[in-house]
Specification:
This protein has 416 residues and is α/β, with parallel strands linked by helices. The protein contains 14 helices and 14 strands. The strands form five sheets. Strands 2-10-9-8-7 form a five-stranded mixed beta sheet, with helices on both faces.
Length: 416
């Protein structure tokens, strides 16, 4: 007799990325030469986690009694204000913002799905997306729909297909009366793509016009925003026209920003000029916190609040992060250089943990990934032979000296 309800009876126990990582590590432990480009964490050139020493020290200095007490359901006020300031300080958005703590950025995504969609409705995101978006939607009895992410430009480059986004937004408004859009930018996972100013302006224009026809909520997943090229907060300057016209929120992650993946520190930031509506959002999100994880990691939130609130300490952490980013930037440059003249085709990639190499139509990403594994090189295949797919490459976990081998192995597998 099956005790699980039917919708839960055939779910996989492990995430495919974690499964591939486990296999790669097991082979390496047996003495094989392995290039593991699956891990979504920044590793140094010896394969160890690239931690920020000042963050670890600050965590250790949290007073024991404070660390052991329950955190407020929405998170400590000092933490919430610090997170809002970290993202929005110096912008007009900050004065209209509230925040609620979550276990990593993933928790913020879950909060948004529960708050802005009824069961049976679907969230919308790009055709290339972080796999757990679908898991989050499915776990909450919601669906996931996509718009074609890229279109070719006249010079052969790829750019965000804003027309496809607009079409799907209006379709969601027509069929379910509302829309929830996840946009992962800058440094999108899994492609590494960061929108340019013109693309952001076009997206904002589409959202503002569509918002006149029904309720739209857009959540910007900024998990990797500190690892892009240029000013990580530059895109915020384009979002002003959305305030009050659509729901605007951010999924903030301390996992990447502070290299504390196990601390599960995150937050959902909501921007709304209507005070009553903003307060209702805070109440609804806090209620949802209580009904899922209750409250978050108190010592980690206290430590992050202190780091963001004390200028000298923050500067120290920023300098340590800059060193880690320099390591990552070297791998990005090596990848772009090694890919010249090969069969690899991928979106513009100038920063972030990942890139995705397109798999030509008619070829199976899963078979290509398997062929690469025969040569000790691990990437994450995405899609199938009858659906556009690619190979996600986690440069964050690959030593610069191994990038050429990675590219060569992928090139041969794609040409086979």
């Amino acid at each position: 007799m099956e005790l699980l309800i039917p919708s839960r009876a055939a779910r996989p126990a492990d995430d495919p990325i974690f499964a591939l990582n486990t296999e790669a590590n097991a082979r390496r432990a047996r003495g094989e030469s392995i290039v593991n480009a699956t891990v979504g964490a920044l590793l140094d050139d010896e394969g160890k986690l690239a931690i920020l020493p000042s963050v670890v020290e600050t965590l250790r200095e949290v007073p024991a009694v404070q660390a052991a007490t329950y955190a407020p359901l929405a998170g400590p006020a000092s933490y919430l204000q610090a997170v809002i300031g970290d993202v929005l300080a110096g912008t007009p958005l900050a004065e209209h913002a509230i925040a609620v703590a979550s276990p990593g950025g993933t928790g913020a995504l879950r909060l948004a799905t529960e708050a802005y969609l009824e069961r049976g409705q679907s969230l919308l995101t790009s055709s290339m997306y972080w796999g757990p978006y679908k898991t989050i939607a499915d776990e909450g009895d919601r669906g996931l729909d996509t718009f074609s992410m890229f279109s070719a430009t006249s010079n052969g480059e790829t750019s965000l297909d804003v027309g496809a986004l607009e079409q799907k937004l209006h379709a969601h408004l027509a069929t379910q009366g509302r829309a929830l859009l996840f946009l992962n930018d800058p440094c999108q996972n899994p492609t590494g793509y960061s929108m340019r100013d013109a693309e952001w302006r076009a997206v904002v224009d589409v959202l503002a016009k569509a918002g006149e026809k029904g309720p739209i909520n857009v959540l910007v997943d900024i998990a990797y925003y500190l690892y892009g090229s240029g000013d990580p907060r530059a895109f915020l300057a384009h979002l002003g026209p959305l305030v009050g016209k659509v729901g605007l929120s951010f999924a903030w992650s301390g996992s990447k920003s502070f290299a504390q993946y196990g601390a599960r520190v995150g937050a959902m930031i909501v921007v709304d000029p209507d005070v009553a509506r903003r307060n209702r959002a805070r109440d609804a999100l806090t209620y949802s916190c209580r009904g899922t994880w209750s409250n978050c990691n108190h010592p980690s939130m206290l430590a992050i609040a202190r780091i963001l609130g004390e200028a000298p300490l923050r500067a120290k952490v920023d300098a340590e992060r800059a060193q880690s980013k320099q390591l990552l930037d070297g791998r990005v440059r090596a990848f772009n250089e090694a890919a010249k003249g090969t069969s690899l085709r991928y979106p513009r990639y100038d920063g972030g943990f990942f890139s995705t190499v397109f798999v030509p139509a008619g070829k199976d990403p899963q078979r290509i990934g398997a062929a690469m594994r025969e040569h000790g090189v691990y990437v994450v295949p995405q899609g199938t032979v009858d659906k556009a797919g690619g190979l996600r490459v986690a440069l964050c976990s690959v030593a610069e000296r191994d990038v050429a081998r990675l590219v060569e192995t992928m090139d041969k597998a794609l040409r086979a």
